[in-house]
Amino acid sequence: MLLDPGMDLTLRPMRYPDFYERYRAAIRNTWTVEEVDLHSDLADLARMTPQERHLINRLVAFFATGDSIVANNLVLNLYQHVNAPEARLYLSRQLFEEAVHVQFYLTLLDTYLPDPDERVKAFAAVDNIPSIRDKAEFCFRWIDTLADLRSLETKQDRRAFLLNLICFAACIEGLFFYGAFAYVYWFRSRGLLSGLATGTNWVFRDESMHMEFAFSVVDTVRAEEPDLFDDKLGEQVTLMLEEAVAAELAFARDLCGDGMSGMNVDQMREYLEYVADQRLRRLSMPIRYGTANPFGFMELQDVQELANFFERRVSAYQVAVEGNVTFDETF
C-alpha cells in the first residue's frame, strides 16, 4: 500500500499511473522567472496610496519565505513516507517548482523594494512581523509533528502523516497562498501590477496541481485503508482549517486596515471561509461555514486559464513532452 514502510524503487510494474501522469503534466507546464516582466509594475507602485503600498509590502514579505516552508516539509516529511516511485517523481518535480517560486519572489522583492534595508526587513518577516510570524509558527508546528517519525508503522503514524499532508495541501498551499492570490488578482481587476499577475498565474497553476496531487494521495489512502478516516480525523482537519482561517484573517487585518474599495477584512473573512469549505468538500468532509465567494474577480481562477490580450505573453502554454508510455508493460 501507498503508506507501507519502505522505499519501492522500480517503476515497473507501475502501481499508480495517475501519479506518473501528474508528473508528466507538471513537466509540460514548465516556466521560468525570466519570462515575467515585473518592471512594468513600477509605475503602478509609484502612484499607489500608502495603504496599498503597505498591503504590497506585507504581501511580498510573506511570499519571501512561504514556498521555502512548503519545500522544507516536502523534503523532511513527505518524500520519505510515500512508498511509490511514480509519486516521488511528482514530489521531485514539485520541489523544483517550489525553487522556481522562491526565485520568483526573490526577484519580486528585488524589483519592488529597491531599498536594501526594506528588503532585509521583508526577509526577516517571520521573526519581526506578528501576522506573518503567526502563520509561520502554524506551519512549523505541523512540520514538527512528523519530526521523529522515521516510518509509518502504526495507524497512529499514518494518521499523523495524513494530517500533515492535508495541512500543507488544504491550509498552507490551499488557504494561505489562495488568500495571497486574492490580493494580487484584486490589483489585476483594477488594471494594476500586470507583471505580478502574470507570474502569479503560473504560481497559481503550480499550487493548484500540488494541492490536487496531495488530495489524490489522500484519496488513494482512503481507498486502501478506509479505517484511517473516522470522525476524529474529520474533527481534527476541521479544527486545523479553523486555525488556518484565523491566522490568515489576522494577516488580512494587518494588510487591509480600515479597508479599501473592493478589499476589506469582512470580504477576506468570507473568501477564506468559502475556500476552507472548498477544501473540506474536496476531502469528502462536511463543510464548516457555508459562506459564498465575495470576490467575483476570483471566479475565473478555478477554470484555468484564459489568455489575456493585454498581457505581454500568453500565460497558458505547455512544453511538449515526447514519447509514449503504456502501463501494461513488464519491466
Automatic annotation (TrEMBL):
Gene Ontology BP term (one): deoxyribonucleotide biosynthetic process
Cofactor(s) listed in the protein's UniProt record: Fe cation
Function: Provides the precursors necessary for DNA synthesis. Catalyzes the biosynthesis of deoxyribonucleotides from the corresponding ribonucleotides.
Subunit structure as annotated in this protein's UniProt entry: Tetramer of two alpha and two beta subunits.
Keyword DNA damage: no
Molecular function terms, GO-annotated: metal ion binding; ribonucleoside-diphosphate reductase activity, thioredoxin disulfide as acceptor
Textual note on the cofactor: Binds 2 iron ions per subunit.
Domain of life the protein comes from: Bacteria
Binding residues for Fe cation 2: E98, E173, E207, H210
EC number: 1.17.4.1
Annotated source species: Nonomuraea dietziae
Protein name: Ribonucleoside-diphosphate reductase subunit beta
Coiled-coil ranges (or none): none
UniProt-annotated catalytic positions: Y105
Keywords noted in UniProt: Deoxyribonucleotide synthesis, Iron, Membrane, Metal-binding, Oxidoreductase, Transmembrane, Transmembrane helix
Residues at which Fe cation 1 binds: D67, H101
